[in-house]
């Protein structure tokens, strides 16, 4: 028996939103099908976190109007810090649901790289978007939230890097949330064609203390043969959001992805980061850091699924939990039958800073092939008193010693964030959270 | 002149008494060697002075110029002038050696009076050169993947950068080849002088060939049982510890059965 969920928007409202954007028929149809499915499909079931009572559906407004920025001077100071105003050549800023600033270098344009907001891309690069939008990596009908997302997409980015093009400088995206009423149904689609290479770095940042909205984010990376993608993300969304963030990659032969994710939301969050190593010789390196605090409940699933022969997957997750934060770390290395010589490695470590915090690291290796390598390490523990003693024996206070140990613990991922200003921001966010 | 005074020190670990009434007085401008066979409580003394969390002082006092050290937290002891070059320094991932040493120096300074980055780098470079350390050690994570010898040199690097009043060297010579030993000794001799006192804990006379002690103490059964000048170390080297045991009527010098 399926139970119909009452959704926040009706099919008619979705249709009229689509029309107001002048969307092509295929996309309008995709939304129409998706909103029907969203009513019927079951919720996703993140391992070890019960989300049946979470509100992923209701919000005060599907879209809010925000002013665009005429120049970067108009940005609030805390946003300016994230951006190398002079040096950043390729930059997209979205303010709540409004594409607010776009700068694309001539070099990028002459290389045929597409870098624009998703709804513009749907109109102007329909063929490309249609080919990859929720077709390879994430499917519309996976569950209620993927369908709901597809129906309600109201922002996001499209990146396409043509064959053999190497984009030297990182593309930067900043999603600003400065309206309490805003909901984010952002769709990011990065397509790296054969033999291409690109670095994409995004930041989600709330400048409001509290949100009333939904953040239902689906981000897809499709890397074709021998393409290389480096994907950095820092999420700092406000308390009050219900966040579902799904970052997924689909890799063809010899393709590579490097994920560096700093997941620093203050909201309750369900995060999935899944990489499908479809092609032989493909490789994924997935690095995540997390800080949980307050009453936050979070679930982070990192999965690398091996289909291709000689495919390699490495998962590294480090989390710090304080106050009464509850966090589940699921790490899954799955090797499908036929993926001979695959290598699945993972490491999850949780550092507990308070008696009341709860952290659980669940490493899973699911292996359906004999000729493979796999390994995992997981630990949940407190700051090592002998390390503290060593640092303090040099005159460093206990608080400062703890700070050094925590930053050190998170460093393997922080140091992998590709843009320096974003790395600095992540360090600052961590600083603010763990103090 | 500063003075470190240890009186009637009793120390337990997990309810087992290791030190059983130890007395020792050290002034700046003096180097004291503490020798003794394994298991006599030498490293326990070092850890207890610094305030290792596993060691419990059950009786006695430690004072620097009249200040009660035992009431201080570990970092306060360091700021009061104590430094322990550890036998097994911790490895701390993600924290560079340079950042760590700079934090340690700044911890002793008032806020707003931190050492300038340039001055710090100059001093660090100079000291690393002096200790024949690779410059890349500054940017490596603290002790992570360091060889035994590199760790010991790194302890001396910290000693020279922090410039404490009293340093305790806990078997700084163990696991060092002769060249590394000479470098470590060179560092300690460089520190030697009016504002600096040192306790060098060692099994072996060989360290004392390079660092001439002013006083030598022998520990057995959790106490100092004999004190003398440098000639005592030489006699121990030549004759071993048996003559002391005989002289004092000690059958088993270790703490365990005492």
Automatic annotation (TrEMBL), chain A:
<protein>
    <submittedName>
        <fullName>Fe-S cluster assembly protein SufD</fullName>
    </submittedName>
</protein>
<dbReference type="InterPro" id="IPR000825">
    <property type="entry name" value="SUF_FeS_clus_asmbl_SufBD_core"/>
</dbReference>
<dbReference type="InterPro" id="IPR037284">
    <property type="entry name" value="SUF_FeS_clus_asmbl_SufBD_sf"/>
</dbReference>
<dbReference type="Pfam" id="PF19295">
    <property type="entry name" value="SufBD_N"/>
</dbReference>
<dbReference type="InterPro" id="IPR055346">
    <property type="entry name" value="Fe-S_cluster_assembly_SufBD"/>
</dbReference>
<dbReference type="InterPro" id="IPR045595">
    <property type="entry name" value="SufBD_N"/>
</dbReference>
<dbReference type="InterPro" id="IPR011542">
    <property type="entry name" value="SUF_FeS_clus_asmbl_SufD"/>
</dbReference>
<comment type="similarity">
    <text>Belongs to the iron-sulfur cluster assembly SufBD family.</text>
</comment>
<feature type="domain" description="SUF system FeS cluster assembly SufBD core">
    <location>
        <begin position="176"/>
        <end position="409"/>
    </location>
</feature>
<dbReference type="Pfam" id="PF01458">
    <property type="entry name" value="SUFBD_core"/>
</dbReference>
<dbReference type="GO" id="GO:0016226">
    <property type="term" value="P:iron-sulfur cluster assembly"/>
</dbReference>
<feature type="domain" description="SUF system FeS cluster assembly SufBD N-terminal">
    <location>
        <begin position="106"/>
        <end position="173"/>
    </location>
</feature>
UniProtKB/TrEMBL annotation, chain B:
<comment type="similarity">
    <text>Belongs to the ABC transporter superfamily. Ycf16 family.</text>
</comment>
<protein>
    <submittedName>
        <fullName>Fe-S cluster assembly ATPase SufC</fullName>
    </submittedName>
</protein>
<dbReference type="GO" id="GO:0005524">
    <property type="term" value="F:ATP binding"/>
</dbReference>
<feature type="domain" description="ABC transporter">
    <location>
        <begin position="4"/>
        <end position="246"/>
    </location>
</feature>
<dbReference type="InterPro" id="IPR003439">
    <property type="entry name" value="ABC_transporter-like_ATP-bd"/>
</dbReference>
<dbReference type="Pfam" id="PF00005">
    <property type="entry name" value="ABC_tran"/>
</dbReference>
<dbReference type="InterPro" id="IPR003593">
    <property type="entry name" value="AAA+_ATPase"/>
</dbReference>
<dbReference type="InterPro" id="IPR017871">
    <property type="entry name" value="ABC_transporter-like_CS"/>
</dbReference>
<dbReference type="InterPro" id="IPR010230">
    <property type="entry name" value="FeS-cluster_ATPase_SufC"/>
</dbReference>
<dbReference type="InterPro" id="IPR027417">
    <property type="entry name" value="P-loop_NTPase"/>
</dbReference>
<keyword id="KW-0067">ATP-binding</keyword>
<dbReference type="GO" id="GO:0016887">
    <property type="term" value="F:ATP hydrolysis activity"/>
</dbReference>
<keyword id="KW-0547">Nucleotide-binding</keyword>
């Amino acid at each position: 028996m399926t139970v119909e969920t009452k959704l926040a928007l009706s099919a008619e409202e979705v249709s009229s939103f689509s029309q107001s954007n002048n969307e092509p028929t295929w996309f309008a149809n995709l939304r129409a099908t998706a909103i029907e499915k969203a009513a019927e499909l079951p919720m996703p079931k993140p391992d070890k976190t019960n989300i049946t009572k979470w509100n992923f559906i209701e919000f005060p407004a599907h879209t809010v109007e925000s002013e665009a920025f005429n120049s970067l001077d108009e940005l609030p100071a805390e946003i300016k810090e994230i951006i190398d105003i002079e040096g950043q050549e390729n930059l997209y800023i979205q303010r709540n649901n409004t594409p607010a600033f776009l700068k694309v270098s001539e070099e990028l344009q002459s290389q045929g790289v597409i870098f624009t907001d998703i709804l513009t891309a749907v109109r102007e690069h329909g063929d490309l978007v249609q080919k990859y939008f929720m077709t390879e990596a994430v499917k519309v009908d996976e569950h209620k939230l993927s369908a709901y997302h597809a129906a309600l997409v109201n922002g996001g980015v499209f990146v396409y890097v043509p064959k053999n093009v190497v984009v030297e400088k990182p593309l930067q995206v900043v999603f600003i949330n400065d309206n309490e009423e805003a909901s984010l149904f952002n769709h990011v689609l990065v397509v790296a064609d054969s033999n291409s290479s690109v670095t994409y770095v995004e930041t989600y940042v709330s400048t409001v203390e509290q949100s009333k909205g939904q953040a239902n984010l689906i981000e897809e990376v499709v890397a074709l043969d021998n393409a290389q993608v480096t994907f950095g993300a820092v999420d700092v969304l406000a308390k009050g959001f219900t966040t579902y963030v799904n970052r997924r990659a689909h890799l063809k032969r010899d393709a590579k992805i490097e994920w560096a994710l700093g997941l620093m939301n203050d909201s309750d969050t369900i995060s999935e980061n899944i990489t499908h190593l479809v092609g032989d010789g493909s490789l994924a390196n997935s690095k995540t850091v997390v800080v949980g605090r307050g009453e936050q409940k979070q679930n982070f699933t990192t999965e690398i699924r091996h289909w291709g022969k000689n495919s390699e997957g490495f998962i590294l997750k480090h989390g710090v939990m304080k106050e009464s934060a509850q966090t589940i770390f699921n790490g899954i290395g799955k090797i499908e039958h036929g993926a001979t010589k695959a290598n699945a490695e993972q490491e999850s470590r949780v550092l507990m800073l308070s008696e009341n915090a709860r952290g659980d690291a669940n490493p899973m290796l699911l292996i359906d092939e004999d000729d493979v390598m796999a390994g995992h390490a997981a630990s949940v523990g407190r700051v090592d008193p002998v390390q503290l003693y060593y640092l303090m024996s040099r005159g460093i206070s206990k608080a400062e010693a703890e700070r050094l140990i925590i930053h050190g613990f998170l460093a393997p991922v922080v140091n992998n964030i590709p843009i320096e200003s974003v790395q600095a921001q992540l360090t600052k966010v961590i600083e603010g959270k763990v103090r | 002149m500063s003075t470190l005074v240890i009186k009637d020190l009793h120390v337990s670990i997990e309810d087992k008494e290791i030190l059983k009434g130890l007395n020792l007085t050290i002034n700046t401008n003096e180097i004291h060697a503490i020798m003794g066979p394994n298991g006599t409580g030498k490293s326990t003394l070092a850890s207890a002075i610094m305030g290792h969390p596993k060691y419990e002082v059950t009786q006695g006092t430690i004072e620097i110029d009249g200040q009660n050290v035992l009431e201080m937290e570990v970092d306060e002891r360091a700021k009061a002038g104590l430094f322990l070059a550890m036998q097994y320094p911790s490895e701390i991932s993600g924290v560079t050696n340079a950042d760590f040493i700079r934090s340690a120096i700044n911890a002793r300074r008032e806020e707003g009076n931190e050492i300038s980055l340039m001055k710090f780098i100059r001093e660090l470079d100079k000291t690393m050169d002096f200790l024949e350390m690779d410059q890349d050690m500054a940017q490596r994570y603290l002790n992570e993947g360091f060889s035994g010898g590199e760790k010991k040199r790194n302890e001396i690097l910290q000693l020279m950068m922090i410039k404490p009043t009293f340093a305790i060297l806990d078997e700084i010579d163990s696991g060092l080849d002769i060249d590394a030993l000479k470098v470590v000794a060179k560092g300690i001799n460089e520190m030697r002088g009016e504002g600096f006192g040192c306790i060098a804990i060692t099994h072996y006379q060989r360290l004392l060939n390079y660092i001439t002690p002013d006083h030598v103490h022998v520990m057995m059964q959790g106490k100092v049982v004999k004190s003398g000048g440098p000639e005592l170390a030489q006699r121990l080297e030549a004759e071993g510890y048996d003559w002391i045991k005989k002289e004092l009527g000690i059958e088993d010098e270790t703490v365990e059965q005492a």
